[in-house]
Description:
By secondary structure, the chain is mainly alpha-helical.
Amino acid sequence: MNALQYIIGSLILVLAVGLIVMIILQQGKRKGLENVIGGNAGGNSYLNKTEAAKKGKKFEKLTIWVAIVFVVLVIGLYTVTAINKNLQSKDSGTSAETSETSETAESSQTETSGS
């Protein structure tokens, strides 16, 4: 693994934990009995509701953007890994072809010198 894979992998790990926390912290769509039981029934003025809605929308948009970056990084890591494997297989294939060619050349030289 090269350094780029480690960097992307660590970013993916941080974003994954961040996404989990962000999703857990988001407000649910159902508000009713939970507020009454929690004691927030008196604090449900119009201003509080609109401010909470605005903050909730911003938080949802932030969560979506973090999720998009997460998906792009996962695809990028997959691409980088595939490219590295492809390059390594070409390098090992080239060295194998080179050794086969040199062995063939040596054997043909020994055959001609032996005659």
